[in-house]
Amino acid sequence: MRHRLTALFLTMFAIAAPAGAQDTITFRDRTAKPEKVATLSGDIRDEKFTGVKIKPSVGAERDIPAGDIIEIVYAVPGAVNIDYKSAITNENRKSATEAGHKAMEEAEKLYGIVLSKLKDEKTARIQRHLQYKILTTRAFLVAGDKPKTLDLIEQFDKFRKQYPTAWQTVACSRQQAQLLIDLEDYEPAAKVYEDLLKNPELGKDVKQELELASVDLLMRAKNYAVAETRIKDALDRLPAGDPQAERLKIYQIGCQAATADLKTVEPQLLATIEKTADPGLKALAYNTLGDCYVAKGNKKDARWAYLWVDSVYNQDRTEFLKALEKLSQVFKDLNDEDHSNKYKEKLARLK
Fold it and tell me: Nearest 10 degrees: CA dihedral of 245, 249, 254, 256?
């Protein structure tokens, strides 16, 4: 009897839970000083490629750019509420451990169950998001399996082409590019960003970030000539005093690392590190300095440059992961297999 009552209670809870339920957006709030991660709950009124419009519980409607959205938790119909919340809970347990891997398998399964129960047009935006969530959980699960990763890359490609006006398109492109990066297919990853950059509705901040990411990938592919051309074009388009210029100039140094005079570029990079308060810019400068040292065969100094990013200036995820990757290689070149494996494992956990 007790079990039947419990089951009845859970069923009633599932039906009743969404009454007054709200959508919740977690996002990068660039309007805050300093910038922060913020959360808003309310009613999402509109969704499109450029972002979403939400009416919070208190206050006026607000537009959240697609490139700044970290996550959205939708208010779902009562019949699927428990499975949906359970999927989210399991996804939040993600880790490199066996338990963390099993939790992500359960999350993928539950997202699939919820998706299979939603058929009506009213839940179309939720269905689309569930398709995206299933892909992102798989991105974690296929790590290290090249055939499955290649298959998943095609699934991401299909999603972003099927939903070109969805807010998830930006995040989907970033995830697809990351999977290609994991396979060291840097130029195809840059092509994903270049396809996205063709959309005229792309916001300025996201456009600049994607342009930099594309240049960075071309450099990692050692296609320095094309990367330098892109940098020059970007610099020519920037208004005077635009902070983006500092980053682009550091990328220029990186493109010329193999031929640059270390006595000239080293003080330039150290001066940037000294004067800037932006940890992401410091990280880029330290990583570029490390690349210059490597190009000149100075692996020991390169190690210390990358360690600054790992230990202190690790706020920029792209530069942080780049530093870990380079530390693994540098320690290997220095015949320190223990530290090389340590950074290889750390990199795998964070991807």
Answer: 140
* pLDDT, tens only, 332-351: 999 999 999 999 888 877 76
Q: Are 163 and 169 in contact (CB under 8 A)?
A: yes
Task: Render the burial of 209-228: b for 16+ CB within 10 Å, e for the rest.
Answer: bbbbbbbbbbbbbebbebbb
List of domains in the chain: 22-73 (2.30.30), 261-351 (1.25.40.10)
- Joined together, the tokens standing for residue 60 give 């006026």
Alpha helices in 68-167, H assignment, sequence order? 78-91, 98-117, 124-141, 146-162
The answer to whether residues 64 and 50 touch, using CB atoms and an 8 Å cutoff, is no
Whether the pTM exceeds 0.70: the reply is: yes
Q: Is 201 exposed, middle or buried (0-12, 13-18, 19+ CB in 10 A)?
A: exposed
In the block, residue with structure tokens 């409607």? 61
Q: Return the exposure string of 153-166: e unless at least 16 CB atoms fall within 10 Å of the residue's CB, then b.
A: bebbeebbeebeeb
N residues, the chain: 351
